[in-house]
C-alpha cells in the first residue's frame, strides 16, 4: 500500500472544517449526499464521528463519517471519501484504519458499511482491510444502484 502523503494526518473534524467537508462531499458523491445542515449536526453529536485526513496544515485530503447507535455494539461507516487529486496514496486506508480504531475505542464489536456494487476501488479497500460481504440490497441508493453490505468483526 502506498504511504499516506508526507505531512498528512488523521484527526477528528472540527466546525472549521465544515466548508471543506461540504465541498468534498459535492465532488465525491452524485447521490445520497449529506447536506451542510447534516454535517453541522454530525460535527456536534454524541452518536456521530467525522474524521478528516489533512495535509500540512490544509487542505482536506479526505473524510470519513461514522455513526454509533445508543446501546448497539455495531458502528456504521456511512461515508469515506478522498479528494480526487489525492487518491491512490493511502489516504482512504489511513482513514479506514482510524475509523476501526475509533470503533474499538468505543467498545464496538463490529463495524458495518454499505458500498455500491460497482465501486471497485472502495470494495478493494474494504476487503483488504478485512471486511466481509454479508448482504446485498437492491436499489439501495437514491439513484437506484444496488449495495453490498460489509462487516468487520472487531472482537
Ligand atoms: C474509495 C476511496 C475513498 C479510496 O480512497 P483512496 O485514498 O484512493 O484509497 P487508498 O489510496 O488508500 O487505496 C485505494 C486502493 O484502491 C485501488 N484502486 C483505485 N482505483 C481502483 C479501481 N478503479 N479499481 C480497483 N482498485 C482501485 C488503488 O490501487 C489502491 O489499492 P492499493 O492499496 O492496493 O494500492 C476514493 O476512491 C473515493 O473517495 N471515491 C469516491 C467516494 C467513494 O466512492 N467512497 C466510498 C463509498 S462510501
From TrEMBL:
<keyword id="KW-0808">Transferase</keyword>
<dbReference type="InterPro" id="IPR016181">
    <property type="entry name" value="Acyl_CoA_acyltransferase"/>
</dbReference>
<dbReference type="InterPro" id="IPR000182">
    <property type="entry name" value="GNAT_dom"/>
</dbReference>
<protein>
    <submittedName>
        <fullName>Acetyltransferase</fullName>
    </submittedName>
</protein>
<dbReference type="Pfam" id="PF00583">
    <property type="entry name" value="Acetyltransf_1"/>
</dbReference>
<dbReference type="GO" id="GO:0016747">
    <property type="term" value="F:acyltransferase activity, transferring groups other than amino-acyl groups"/>
</dbReference>
<dbReference type="InterPro" id="IPR050276">
    <property type="entry name" value="MshD_Acetyltransferase"/>
</dbReference>
<feature type="domain" description="N-acetyltransferase">
    <location>
        <begin position="8"/>
        <end position="155"/>
    </location>
</feature>
